[in-house]
Hints:
Elements: E1 2-4, E2 16-19, E3 24-28, H1 36-52, E4 57-61, H2 67-74, E5 80-82
Parallel strand pairs: 3-4, 4-5
Antiparallel strand pairs: 1-2, 2-3
Amino acid sequence: MELIDPKTFGLNVKVKIKETKNSFTIIINRKSRIIMKDSERILKQIKKIQKIKLVPVNVETTAPVCNKTKLFLKSFDVKIKTF
């Protein structure tokens, strides 16, 4: 797993991004549920990454994800993987 410096995309240093073969993945490591307000923030981060690199961006998380949030991010072709 190769972590990318989030400053290269103009993101906060607390954001963890890893690069895979054909995409980037935002890693969210927390215990509390991911809700709609979080998904709007995540979508802004994804758009900043895609301004620089035109590749798909996915999300990996250890937290449970709200169903409404899953549908919202899925409508923007964002895949969510939970551990």
